[in-house]
């Protein structure tokens, strides 16, 4: 009887440390603030705010915390990537036009070592030749491209997968 209560109390003392909620940083590059009115035949009619709401809905179901940002400035995006180390588990990045031009973003992703998922609304591989080259792809965990706003929702699920699969290694 006494032994039992000893085991019980030992167990209680060994309560697992409180699990921190997984955190995903969504970064959006130039002109994505114009979604909804910008070339709707390519990017659809959803605004970035509406896409963010869909991301938050899925994140709530998966018990994941979201930070969602947009900037037209390359340097600001670089700063946000640098600051993500130790604060976020995964970065999801629609670098927009900087995908095809920015060595600075590529180097920042490589430098911080936070697993990063590249996303696009449109299928960049089915568009102009200059969009078919991504400078950030080689330093990203993977890419989701061509599903419209659903690319963002899929990225929440992919982020959970990345976190879980990291645990297995
Ligand atoms: C985009 C594709 C890029 O080529 C383009 O410059 C964008 C948006 C996309 O989400 O489909 O601005 O990243």
Describe the protein in words.
The protein has helices at residues 2-13, 40-43, 48-61, 74-83, 103-112, 150-168, and strands spanning 22-28, 64-70, 90-94, 116-120, 142-145. The protein is an alpha/beta fold. The protein has one domain (19-168): Rossmann fold. Residues 31, 94, 96-97, 99, 120-122, 124, 131 line the site of 1,3,4-trihydroxy-5-OXO-cyclohexanecarboxylic acid.
Instruction: Walk across the major sheet and give the strand order.
Output: 2-1-3-4-5
Label the CATH architecture: 3-Layer(aba) Sandwich
Low-confidence runs:
5-10
Structural class, by secondary structure, is: alpha/beta
Small molecules in complex: 1,3,4-trihydroxy-5-OXO-cyclohexanecarboxylic acid
User: Overall 3D geometry?
Assistant: globular
Overall tally of structural domains:
1
Strand content: 15-25%
Order of helices and strands: HEHHEHEHEEH
How many helices? The count is 6
CATH topology type: Rossmann fold
Fraction of residues in H or I helices: 40-55%
The tally of strands reads 5
Major beta sheet summary? 5 strands, parallel
Structure characteristics:
169 residues; binds 1,3,4-trihydroxy-5-OXO-cyclohexanecarboxylic acid; Rossmann fold; alpha/beta; globular; 5 strands
In short:
It contains six helices and five strands. It is α/β, with parallel strands linked by helices. It has a single domain, classed as Rossmann fold (3-Layer(aba) Sandwich), CATH 3.40.50.9100.
């Amino acid at each position: 009887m006494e032994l039992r209560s000893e085991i019980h109390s030992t167990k209680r003392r060994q309560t697992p440390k409180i699990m921190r909620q997984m955190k995903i940083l969504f970064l959006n590059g130039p002109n994505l603030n114009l979604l909804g009115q910008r070339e709707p035949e390519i990017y659809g009619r959803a605004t970035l705010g509406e896409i963010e709401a869909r991301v938050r809905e899925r994140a709530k179901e998966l018990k994941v915390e979201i930070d969602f940002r947009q900037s037209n400035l390359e340097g600001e995006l670089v700063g946000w990537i640098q600051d993500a180390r130790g604060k976020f588990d995964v970065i999801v990045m629609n670098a927009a036009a900087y995908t095809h031009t920015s060595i600075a973003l590529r180097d920042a992703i490589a430098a911080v070592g936070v697993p990063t998922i590249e996303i696009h609304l449109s299928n960049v591989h089915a568009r102009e030749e200059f969009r078919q080259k991504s400078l950030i792809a080689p330093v990203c965990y993977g890419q989701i491209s061509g599903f419209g706003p659903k690319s963002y929702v899929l990225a929440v699920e992919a982020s959970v997968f990345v976190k879980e699969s990291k645990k297995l290694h």
